[in-house]
Specification:
The termini are far apart. The protein is α+β, with helices and mostly antiparallel strands and about 140 residues long. The chain is flat, with a radius of gyration of 26 Å. A three-stranded antiparallel β-sheet has the order 1-2-5, with no helix packed on it. It is built from one helix and six strands; from the N terminus they run αββββββ. The longest helix has 24 residues, at about 1-25. The model has no long low-confidence stretch (mean pLDDT about 80).
């Protein structure tokens, strides 16, 4: 019985060492960027300044707008986006005199595909949206 344990330990020890080395080889992932915090200031009677207060110079941000936070009939609608490091955005109130804003990172599900290209921005298993039109044939004119 003792001999069997020695053999088992002798066989498993190299395997455990290899597993440990494989885990040690995986480089640590950088921490995700902080979620953006948004500050709003009135610029004029129908325009506001939206500032991301904790923005990073390497990040891209998107701003969304919603008319009501409770009613599901009002969804978040894309307002604008910026270039890397842009943290100031303006929004104009056209037909609506109230609203809510949120700033987000451009890849909600962290799958490497920006939201505007993502088939489902909230599902990391769905990647780039691709549409193929099989019919009508190329050259078809619609009236």
């Amino acid at each position: 019985m003792n001999q069997g344990r020695k053999i088992l330990i002798g066989v498993l020890s190299p395997v455990l060492v290899l597993i440990t080395l494989a885990i040690a080889q995986v480089p640590p992932q950088p921490p995700p960027p902080p979620l953006p915090a948004l500050k709003i200031s009135l610029l004029s009677t129908n325009q506001v300044l939206l500032q991301i207060t904790n923005g990073l110079s390497t990040e891209l941000y998107e701003v969304y707008r919603r008319l009501d936070l409770v009613d599901p009939a009002y969804e978040w609608v894309f307002q604008t986006n910026g270039v890397a490091g842009q943290t100031n955005f303006t929004a104009t109130f056209d037909e609506f005199v109230a609203g809510f804003f949120k700033a987000t990172l451009p890849d909600w599900d962290a799958d490497g595909v920006p939201n505007w290209q993502d088939g489902d921005p909230e599902d990391p298993n769905v990647l780039t949206l691709s549409i193929t039109i099989d019919s009508p044939a190329t050259g078809t004119i619609f009236n």
